[in-house]
From TrEMBL:
This is SnoaL-like domain-containing protein. It holds the Pfam family SnoaL_2. It comes from Amycolatopsis decaplanina DSM 44594. The lineage of its organism: Bacteria, Bacillati, Actinomycetota, Actinomycetes, Pseudonocardiales. PANTHER family: BLR2505 PROTEIN. Residues 8-113 form the SnoaL-like domain.
Length: 133
């Protein structure tokens, strides 16, 4: 499998709601960085930390949270996924749409890092009960 095939399989697993398939490309040393300003901001290492601190938190806080992939760009040891997040916050009932880029780095055919670049304002606003509709 090429690097872009590995990431395409991750996104296909996401579309199916297959968390194990989404985490499959991550090794114990893979770093996963959620953008500053995003509700789950931080860097997590390995599939368990990503599962607990990112996907588990998203499942707890959001209804219908999805990532729609628009483009998958193959730059060899870097693969970039461009797309859109959507979801509805369980507590506030507010929905959002936000553009996002995922930057995947590889070394020797293995994912070494993931970095999220996202317009976090719509996400934070949807989660904030004090915001006006």
């Amino acid at each position: 499998m090429s690097n872009s095939d590995i990431i395409a399989a991750h996104y296909a697993a996401s579309d199916r709601g297959d968390l194990a398939g989404m985490l499959a490309p991550l090794g114990p040393e893979t770093t996963w960085t959620e953008a500053a300003g995003f509700p789950y901001a931080g860097t997590y290492t390995g599939p368990e930390e990503v599962r607990d601190n990112v996907f588990g938190a998203i499942a707890r806080d959001w209804e219908g949270y999805t990532f729609s992939l628009d483009d998958l760009l193959d730059a060899g040891d870097t693969v970039i996924g461009l797309g859109t997040y959507r979801g509805k916050h369980r507590e506030t009932g507010r929905s959002f749409t936000a553009r996002v880029a995922h930057v995947w780095k590889f070394d020797g055919g293995k994912v070494v890092s993931f970095e999220q670049i996202v317009d976090s304002v719509p996400v934070v606003n949807a989660a904030n009960a004090a915001e006006d509709r």
